């Protein structure tokens, strides 16, 4: 069969022939229909991610995707071991797979699990968003930030959502869904957050950027909090597209009721990740099938994997590879 094959850690995959996968106890061979090209997939293939320690070379990358079982059902599944889903066929555990609604295309379904479950965990577990909350999404025009912005209202009942991002077209679309918007690089982020927080304090901040934008938001939250008052704001660090570090004045954490936490494989209990797959993912797939959430995708052929691997995806778009 044809597959994307990594022969050395840190090197991109090549399009090559591999022997057919052989099923074992609790696994079946399924025909892959689509596989999302995510940062997690690239991280594992680099050899730097801890999951790579359990794998042997040569390996097929591709953490999650959509496959068709022998009985005709399409499922969202995870590629097992060193046999990922950037291939024509893959080994999966059918007991851990989630069925894809008939009305949902395989490309969209493959793109949804990674950003969808991450957004759900961020909103439900780390930020603990509840109905009526005021939520700021920093980096809302990215793939996961866009889904989090949509889900904050549609699934968690947030009273108001503010979307901050750079992509003007995507920001305009998020505005059409009911979110207030801040255009990074054009609007004064600190001034806008200060104004909004003073008028209605933020209950949660979902940060997919970090770096300088985070520094501005931290400062704005403190500046907008009147002396002698208290409001709890849950600041959740998820991504670092704008920088890996921040400089934070210690007075900020003394001047405002900010609690900061992160979302990642090491900061979220395993049972929460499991709940995201068994409870949240079926709901997300149904919402996507019904047109209640929107996710930008770009389908690319597996035969072009060597070029796709090094290209930058369009802003806010998930690249999905099809055999």
From TrEMBL:
Any GO MF annotation of the entry: oxidoreductase activity
SMART domains annotated for this entry?
A: PKS_ER
Q: Which residues cross the membrane?
A: none
- Source organism's superkingdom? Bacteria
- Where in the numbering of this chain does the Enoyl reductase (ER) domain appear? 10-295
| Pfam families the UniProt entry points to | ADH_zinc_N
From the Swiss-Prot or TrEMBL record, give the protein name.
Answer: Alcohol dehydrogenase
Organism lineage reads as: Bacteria, Bacillati, Actinomycetota, Actinomycetes, Mycobacteriales
